Amino acid sequence: MPPKSHYRNIQCTDNKHLFVAYDDDYRPQALLNIKGKVTASLKDFDKVEAWLYSDGFFPVLKNDQVGYINEQGKLVVPTIYDNLIDPNDKYNEVWANPVYQGKIVVVKDGAYGVIDTNNKVILSFENNYAMMDSFSNDRAPVYDFNTELWGLIDTNGKEVVAPQYDGLDGHLGGHYGFNEGLLGVIKDDKWGFVTKTGAVAVPFIYDEIRPFSEQLAGVRKGNRWGFIDGANRTVIPFKFSDDKVQRMSVTSFGATYFNFNNGTAQIEEKSDGTSVCINKLGKIVACSEW
């Protein structure tokens, strides 16, 4: 719950004692403590997103360049890195990667690399990677421009899984990353799931997948969707038609289809706007709000 303040637009962060205040045009104004007191001014920056706060740091944007501040508002990484938004990708709104265990995937002059929160370079920008995702589960997916395949690096920038995947599971311009310890990847036109060591947890046999949520993943074979567990056991049979799944949209609760939350997953939205949800037994139930 945001604290009382003369600012009308206040957003929470993952730190219950830290908030971001904005003006009426949602330009960043200040960091606030739990009592609503200003602890740092943010007026020098064009963007500071509360939802990108992680590990004690915020990305900041100034003159279309990315840097990072700490919880005291001190600029610890100068605003010298590229804005991640591709102007040709209307779905991607993530202009910077969050900090993960003190490490950050950044782009400088079009080249990807890894730095720490002291702006020390961990992985040189002179590498073979044409693309790099943010860290999750101690790994960052990397795309090798020589092989045109995806692999994985650890937080020290070491390649731990050689490039071998054709693509990563994602939605609306981004990638899901690891969920519940597993990453969705595609190989030879079929989807499966791997661990952070590259071990295959779910074989490459599916035509489409969703990330794991509440120990289940929605997967498609042909025209039918069902749900599997992390050992590739079918938990909910393949009985849901693909014809009713909306690809480039989210559900009415802001999630993707076939993702569980609070025990329910949305599988369809009817023409009248009515949401159709199931429980973990595959039975139609009322939808839980996200």
Would you spell out the secondary-structure blueprint of this structure?
Elements: E1 9-12, E2 19-22, E3 28-32, E4 38-41, E5 47-48, E6 57-62, E7 65-70, E8 75-82, E9 103-108, E10 111-116, E11 121-123, E12 129-132, E13 140-144, E14 149-153, E15 159-165, E16 167-168, E17 170-171, E18 174-175, E19 183-187, E20 190-194, E21 200-206, E22 208-209, E23 217-221, E24 224-228, E25 234-241, E26 260-261, E27 264-269, E28 275-278, E29 284-285
Antiparallel strand pairs: 1-2, 2-3, 3-4, 5-6, 6-7, 7-8, 9-10, 10-11, 12-13, 13-14, 14-15, 16-19, 17-18, 19-20, 20-21, 22-23, 23-24, 24-25, 26-27, 27-28, 28-29
Kindly state the number of beta strands.
29
General shape: globular
Roughly what percent helix?
Answer: under 10%
Strands in their spatial order, largest beta sheet: 1-2-3-4
Please identify the structural class as seen in this structure: mainly beta
How many distinct helices?
0
Instruction: Report the sheet with the most strands, covering strand number, pairing sense and barrel closure.
Output: 4 strands, antiparallel
Radius of gyration over all CA atoms, rounded: 21 Å
**Percent of residues in β-strands:** over 45%
